[in-house]
Design brief:
three-stranded antiparallel beta sheet, mainly beta, four-stranded antiparallel beta sheet
Length: 205
């Protein structure tokens, strides 16, 4: 019998060797098969975000999963926030000062892979044997993945709920060109994902 490949194949990669007492960037490189998609941190009207349970040696710890900016996909009137191509979820790994040798980094991951017709809950072990040291990092590949993350804004924004409308003021210099603005809400269930979003300029807002 032929082996049925998963809708999305994940692979755990490190940017380079991990310096003792420092940090190293990890990536879960998600590779959807043609016609399949995975989900953002907030999946929208349907779907599920990825769940990762790390199994790390003592003294090691991970930061939050950092997702790239998703795209919008409407299926049967439901708005989904998805990735329909290869993408990487980034994680910072903290390394204790006494680490040495090669360290087994393991995680149990669950994710949802969908086409426009079916959804399949998938799971697997993420596995990486990480050398401790100060070797040359794979900067180019990880820099490209980092540019796909949402970039934090230095100035504080503002929001107000006005009846059934959520108004958000986002600081953005008047000279910055924005072609197709869209606000992706990280928190689930706050807004109607299908509701139209309207935008206007007021100086640097």
């Amino acid at each position: 019998a032929g082996v049925h490949a998963r809708g999305i194949e994940p692979k755990l990669i490190a940017e380079g060797p991990a310096p003792a007492g420092g940090e190293v960037e990890l990536a879960i490189h998600m590779r959807p098969a043609p016609g399949w998609h995975g989900y953002w941190l907030n999946p929208g009207d349907a779907g599920l975000p990825m769940d990762v349970q790390w199994r790390l040696p003592e003294g090691f710890s991970t930061g939050p999963l950092r997702y790239p900016v998703p795209t919008r996909l409407t299926v049967a009137g439901l708005m989904n926030y998805v990735f329909e191509r290869d993408y990487a979820v980034l994680i910072r790994l903290k390394v204790p000062a006494d680490a040495k040798g090669t360290i087994p980094i393991r995680a149990d991951a669950h994710w949802l892979a969908c086409t426009d017709k079916i959804c399949v809950p998938e799971q697997g072990e993420l596995s990486l044997d990480l050398p401790i040291g100060n070797g040359t990092p794979n900067r180019t590949r990880f820099d490209a993945w980092r540019t796909e993350l949402a970039q934090p804004i230095v100035t504080v924004g503002h929001f107000a709920a006005d009846g059934r409308t959520l108004r958000v003021a986002i600081p953005l210099p008047a000279g910055a060109d924005v072609r197709d603005p869209y606000l992706f809400p990280v928190t689930d269930g706050v807004v109607d994902y299908e509701a139209p979003q309207s935008f206007r300029r007021a100086g640097d807002w």
